[in-house]
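Can't paste images in this forum, so I'm doing it all in text. The chain is below; anyone willing to post the predicted structure tokens underneath?
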Amino acid sequence: MPIYAYKCSSCGHAEDVMQKISDAVLTTCPKCGAETFGKQLTSAGIALKGSGYYATDFKNSGAKPQSCSAEGGCCPCAGSN
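Text version of the structure:
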């Protein structure tokens, strides 16, 4: 079941509400009673579970990042002394 972030534009009260997709949108603020309670636009959080996702798509390959040195030439700051 999704969790929706709501906020009242009158009093500023914010609340996360777990509700079904088919449930009606809440409009009455539980704090002040105004009809200005509405959904907020938020990013979706995801969790990849199982053996296939992490091992094949998001696992660190073990390669260490290249270290930057002024003489190594790996970044724009190289040789700018």
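Residues 1-41 form a domain with the Rubrerythrin, domain 2 fold (CATH 2.20.28.10). Strands lie at 3-8, 14-18, 37-39.
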